[in-house]
Amino acid sequence: MDTQFETLEFQAEARQLLQLMVHSIYSNKDIFLRELVSNASDALDKLRLEAFRDKDLEVDTDDLHIDLEIDTDQRTLTVRDNGIGMSRDEVVTLIGTIAKSGTAELLRKLKEAQDSTASQELIGQFGVGFYSSFMVAEKVTLLTRRAGESQATRWESAGEGTYTIETLDEAPQGTAVTLHLKPEDTDDQLFDYTNTQKVMGIVQRYSDFITWPIRMAVDRPDGEGGTKREVETVNSMKALWARPKDEASEEEYKEFYKHISHDWTDPLETVQLRAEGTFEYQALLFIPAHAPLDLFMRERKRGVQLYVKRVFIMDDCEALIPEYLRFVKGVVDAQDLSLNVSREILQQDRQIQLIRKRLVKKVLSTVKTMMTEDTDRYRTFWKEFGAAVKEGLVGDPENQETILDIASFASTHDAEQPTTLREYIERMKEGQEHIYYLTGASRSAVENSPHMEAFTAKGYEVLILADPIDEMWVESVNGFEGKQFQSIAKGQVDLDTEEEKKTSESERDQQQQDFAELLSWMTTSLQDTVKEVRLSARLTTSPACIVGDAHDVTPTLEKMYRAMGQEVPQIKRILEINPEHPLVAGLRKAHAEHADDPTLGETAELLYGMALLAEGGELSDPPRFTRLLADRLASSL
């Protein structure tokens, strides 16, 4: 059929989001126009690029522009472009659903947000600008025809639960979004968007830097006491990244960031870079103030916009920014690249690789400056993006030392404020050779680990590494400032001074003799799960703990590898027991008196299970452990 007409329901998540947009109160509804103009600008960029790549595409690209049309009688505002347009299927996919992961999380956070500013920030991070139309419109009509296609699509909705979609035989190429405006309500920050001056002011504030002309009819004096209507270009169209820094205002940078990122908040930092010589390029990058909701989602998009001689080439150019800096937004405009460049070619292009290196060094040096000159902003940065940046310690060996220098870590020194490695080294005890750390699922789990007991008692500072990436990078770095990293859950621990060693040497030798038979028996009894049972120098209050050899893979890393489908041989670890603990002392005595008692083997099994649970491990047979524990408790009553 040439004129299909359907009434469809919004995807459930899209419907919930629409309701939140329509019924929540926002402090600045003007932003809807910035979002629509930004979408139109993207459509023009895509058409020019498509026309360049597809010589058979019959389109006119001589006068690409955006029109703003106001109808005061009908109370409508239309944003029209002659860009790439959309097919019927694209309209359903892009408008009728939210084709992005993390929707449920977004909705949950939106509902939890206590004020309008927080809600706007979340919506901006999620990037659903089109839906902002329903803040100011009772009904939205979209008419679009994709370049190269003959049929057009008309979409309409009042933002409730459904929308209509219709196929038409004729329409101009591009997209027109018509907002049927709500009545003015200044108490609700809902202004008259049929007012030409108001609309011009919004464009000049938020979209002045758009590289395409934004045109609208404006009433001007005719010189005879009356007015005449003229179509004018209302934006300057100056590429902000090409201007010297002293010729652009802070406000312009902020609005440009919001335009390219679809974030509704100001950036944390602006990074500008200009290279001249062998090859030339300009870069204008931004570090956001908040991590996006999809920062750690595999399907997320990343990268910066790539231009060549101010001609838009692609969004999300991954070749220019490494994975660990995926939160960085911005524009790179290269002078010497071919316009006909693909993502595959970019991966191998020498110039792109050199630009990437310089961008990375510039971003990292900017963070270093922030660290030394503005501690509060640096702490905000690290709180939001530190876990992502640490991925570079594994993936970017060239900048490993720089990343370690700008990194912060939770530590036992301060319950609130993280520490840098330089600060840690300055506080190290005399004679301390290693930077001590312990990985775990959370700060609480690490702080309460039996492995911490001797370090706490002796006053040694320990880094608390609770991000999943921490399990990987500590295995791949050589150290920092000549100090090696040492897990307190691996190898032997000896924190005694030379004087303390001399004083306790005879006592330790005696303990080793006293417990030799028990250690040998336990090693044999638990041989299926541990490689050795030995006395511990790291325990003060717990009966036992499990440690690895210096080069063993940690249990958490072992699980991560298996989750990724990699086969890892089972690694037996070492059970350390505390000779001072009543349970261990009692087990030694019982074994000396009744070595053939079968319940002693169960006690050893329980001791191992408790040590495994104390470090956050998983029992291989939880029902058996529970039954043994219940039987033992019952026999003691």
Automatic annotation (TrEMBL):
It is found in: Cytoplasm. Pfam families: HATPase_c_3 (PF13589), HSP90 (PF00183). Residues 344-559 are annotated as: B. GO terms for cellular component: cytoplasm. It comes from the Bacteria. One of its GO terms (molecular function) is unfolded protein binding. SUPFAM superfamilies: ATPase domain of HSP90 chaperone/DNA topoisomerase II/histidine kinase (SSF55874), HSP90 C-terminal domain (SSF110942), Ribosomal protein S5 domain 2-like (SSF54211). ATP binds at residues 35, 39, 81, 86, 100-102, 125-130, 175, 343. Residues 1-343 are annotated as: A. Residues 560-637 are annotated as: C. Residues 28-185 form the Histidine kinase/HSP90-like ATPase domain. Keywords: ATP-binding, Chaperone, Cytoplasm, Nucleotide-binding, Stress response. Molecular chaperone. Has ATPase activity. NCBIfam families: PRK05218.1. Belongs to the heat shock protein 90 family. PANTHER family: HEAT SHOCK PROTEIN 90 FAMILY MEMBER (PTHR11528). Homodimer. This is Chaperone protein HtpG. It comes from Amycolatopsis cihanbeyliensis. The gene is htpG.
